[in-house]
Amino acid sequence: MRNRWAILAILFVVRLTIAFQFQSVAAVAPLLGEIFGVGLADIGILIGLYFTPGVVLALPGGAIGRTLGDKPTTIAALLLMTAGSLVMATTDIWGLQMAGRLVSGAGGVLLTVQLTKMGTDWFAGKEIATAMAIFVNSWPAGVAISLLVLPAIGTAYGAGAVFAATGALSAIGIALIMFYQPPPGATVSAASSARLDRLALLAVIVAGLIWGLYNVGFAMIFSFGPSLLAERGWSIAAAGSAISVVMWLSVVSVPAGGYLADRFKRPFMLAITSSLVVAALLAWLSRSDAVITILVLIGLIGGHPAGPIMSLAARVLVPETRAIGMGVFYTLFYAAMMLGPAVAGRLAKSAGTAAVALDLGALTVLACPPLMWLFERIVSVRNRRAKS
């Protein structure tokens, strides 16, 4: 298979399994609280544990993929995700739930880094913002599906069935990835090595921070949104369905943002404007009863920065530095996503409401525009030095 859009479709579906698995805890958070007798702080820690391995594994993830190869690495990652889900499905001990979550997260880290590298291999210099927007769109699609499906499964069959479902989907991903083929010349490029220059490294670090902070803000919606609505008297299923509106609309707004960025050549302004609007909407959500209206607006606007942000690293990375660069990028992303839910859970416990988690999300999104400006400044300086 040598059609890059068909390859992108495979990567999209396989990456969707990560979002589906990640969201499994938040989708049935009230149910887990009843079963295990834990509160929002513990749920926040369990959510964040999924990204904890990323702090250690993201950086060497590219090297692992370069050593083992694209397909073997993705299969190994999917096997870890499946194994972690099975542990969580078969135990009623909270400590083992955490262990299973860590194993799943380790697989998710390796899979994320490798799939991003594979997608960039195929689209570097070719509609990269559009392709990356479609690629990252697998995340809201997976979350939206999980919010619709998993609460119903949990209510009917229990939390074990929820985690068994995530393991089954990961196993399906193994079959799909067998159809992947690398682009011509990718093996030669991957085999070589190069070091990131200082400004390129700094730019990738800032890009990773932007992606991490923006996702922390977005994660507050589907991680603590169901609990916020449950506090207001919504059922678990109804709360999950309402929050899924954001993710379903993101399926449209994410690729739309990538297309607009490529079409009008203004990704910087698009990302900044959208981020400011999303920050305001997140703050409004925790203070208003117009829940559906706000969720619709977030869904329509919140996906626009995804493609432009994900294409930032590609601007300073060449094939020889792509593996290490994406490892740095995702190390920052996972650090933010590990700490974000845990901090939000602690704050929610102290305040006695999940609303404070949405406020934290608004602040993290608000931090992105200044960092985007900083990234542009670094790239500008780097380009000037390269010409002199």
Automatic annotation (TrEMBL):
GO terms for cellular component: plasma membrane. The keyword Ribosomal protein does not apply. InterPro entries: MFS, MFS_dom, MFS_Efflux_Transporters, MFS_trans_sf. The chain crosses the membrane at residues 35-60, 72-90, 128-150, 156-179, 199-224, 236-261, 268-285, 291-316, 328-348, 354-375. It is found in: Cell membrane. Residues 7-379 form the Major facilitator superfamily (MFS) profile domain. One of its GO terms (molecular function) is transmembrane transporter activity. Keywords: Cell membrane, Membrane, Transmembrane, Transmembrane helix. Pfam families: MFS_1. Its main location: membrane. It is a multi-pass membrane protein. The keyword Acetylation does not apply. It comes from the Bacteria. This is MFS transporter. It comes from Bradyrhizobium rifense.
